[in-house]
Amino acid sequence: MSKQASETPSTQQAVDAAILSRRSIRAFLPTPVARDDIARILEVAARAPSGANMQPWKVYVLSGEARQRLSRRILEAYAAPRAPDAPARTASYTYYPRQWTAPFIERRRKIGLDLYQLLGLERGDTAGMAAQHGRNFQFFDAPVGLIFTIERVLEQGSWLDYGMFLQNIMLAARARGLDTCPQAAFIHYHDIIRDELGLPASEMVVCGMALGHADPDKIENRLSTEREPLSGFVKFMDV
After folding, report:
1. Residue whose C-alpha is closest to residue 42's, from 139, 198, 147
2. Rounded to whole angstroms, how far apart are CA atoms 167 and 148?
3. Is the backbone of residue 79 left (phi > 0), alpha (psi -120 to 50) or beta?
């Protein structure tokens, strides 16, 4: 038996374990993550496929005072009072559908309700919900925050490639006992991010991501989202 064949079962188990154990963690321990580990995760993730090998991703790794400074600036803007007729902040791009339809609206409501119930937030507790949403901008206390950007000239195919890169990061992190939370919330504060990180005009913010060790004692980390069975999204066509 070849070495490659003998390693196949354990390789399959390791890959499956990384995929199945990945969750969006919303409370992290302050335990530092070594720069070498971060670099290796990103190096491995960059093996993601991309059309014509364009590799459309760019990553800003924030820790220490740099992470705290960005968080402070965004939280100040998030908490600032806004006139009732003032327009909402403009996102760097449209992430969610402009018109919600089934089954997507039901799935969105369910995860929100499940999280708020775990946290003991009653329906209508807008202050509590706003405070929880604001924790995004602290990277949920993770020691490492990642900000991802893409060149504006790139089109939809490169965004698809970018998603594979982001998934690779999350799986490579799990393989090292680390956890993540991808965060679209940052796209509403792209102007602050641009100023703080000195982004060139040619780059736009894709999302953020928290990276670190999950806090096992925080109840919000018990949230486990449901997935549609295969019958709901797969058709096997043999003839």
Report:
1. 147
2. 13
3. alpha
Burial class from Cβ neighbours inside 10 Å (0-12, 13-18, 19+) for residue 70 reads buried
Cβ(132)–Cβ(27) under 8 Å?
A: no
Closest among 231, 163, 171 to 16, alpha carbons compared:
171
Q: Is the dihedral of CA 159, 68, 22, 219 positive or negative?
A: negative
Q: What's the chain's Rg over C-alpha atoms?
A: 19
**pLDDT computed for residue 86 by the predictor:** 84
Average pLDDT on 166-194 reads 98
* pLDDT given at position 152: 98
Tell whether the model's pLDDT for residue 2 goes beyond 60: no
Full-prediction pTM beyond 0.85?
yes
* Pure H helices in 22-103: 35-45, 64-79
Q: What is the dihedral of CA 167, 169, 175, 181, to 10 degrees?
A: -80
Q: 15: which 2 tokens?
A: 């890959």
